[in-house]
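The protein record now logged underneath.
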Amino acid sequence: MEKKSKKKQVTEDKKEIVKQETEALLSKAGINATVDIKETDDGVNVHINAAENALLIGKHGNTLLSLELVLSLIVAKKLGEFQRLILEFGGYREAREDYLIDLAERLREEVIATGADKQVRGLKPWERRIIHMHLGEGEDVATESEGEERDRILVIKKK
């Protein structure tokens, strides 16, 4: 029973460090925000709500991704190990995931109906992952990523 308690304490300590470092980074940028931390299988979800959510998200979520990287590096230095952080500003990522799942379903239907492959360009790695995972659950289409770096394309094919 003591091991479980110790593991819980480590998790709580980790969450507290993430919260403190997030608040410190936002404070240095002059941003007043509420921060809520939740640990998941994918990493640590950092929910941030501020008046400046749009500024923090940036065009196409680019600022959000940059902040995610910087904060992950700051926290890794404090913890002594890399910890994947997933930032969520005012529901942006959740809404984007919903959109991507809807897009994946529409494209699945098109591929099944026409038999022609569909390509999706301009997705960030985490966005491609959402579609891969969602469509990977079915048995009617397959997905793969082609290309390199910024030119990477998600392809949906009929099985």
Summary: Residues 7 and 13 are 10 Å apart (CA to CA). The longest helix spans residues 2-28.
